Amino acid sequence: xxxxxxxxxxxxxxxxxxxxxxxxxxxxxxxxxxxxxxxxxxxxxxxxxxxxxxxxxxxxxxxxxxxxxxxxxxxxxxxxxxxxxxxxxxxxxxxxxxxxxxxxxxxxxxxxxxxxxxxxxxxxxxxxxxxxxxxxxxxxxxxxxxxxxxxxxxxxxxxxxxxxxxxxxxxxxxxxxxxxxxxxxxxxxxxxxxxxxxxxxxxxxxxxxxxxxxxxxxx
Length: 219
Prior knowledge:
Rossmann fold; globular; four-stranded parallel beta sheet; single chain; 45% helix; alpha/beta; 8 strands
């Protein structure tokens, strides 16, 4: 039986591969949701979001895209770790709007005192520090370390997982992180593997945002 309305997850880049990865990551949560969950890609966006210019450039087309689904939406999720257009979409929409970075940080602060971020690049780290500073959570951040990979390279499991494991160990052992956040929606396939190796919680941000969206709808 179809559920009323939808949690609309918008991937602000145009990559079908990344969008499919997000869909797979949250698939097992559908059975717990009071609303259907659908994953969308922003065809007008860049293939990957890797720079501040990319982040800034997707806001206007994303707002226009979300407006088309307002009547069907129980909640929106912005599925990019820079949370582009989050506050603008909250201003535009009458339903709850979640960003995956904000949601992951809020989840991490429930699970541990100090959280670490596994990022894709050094430029991503700089963006994250600006954002976390505005959120007022830098005192809970153990560290944010890059893989120095592009988003398109994240699907290469052999290369990516080894790098993620090394960065995760450094954040756990040298930076004293007691939980980790994956700093890109393109990493959605890796949290369970990392948790098994590292022995600490690993938060996949699209799942964190979906869980908070479910709670926001229930409230």
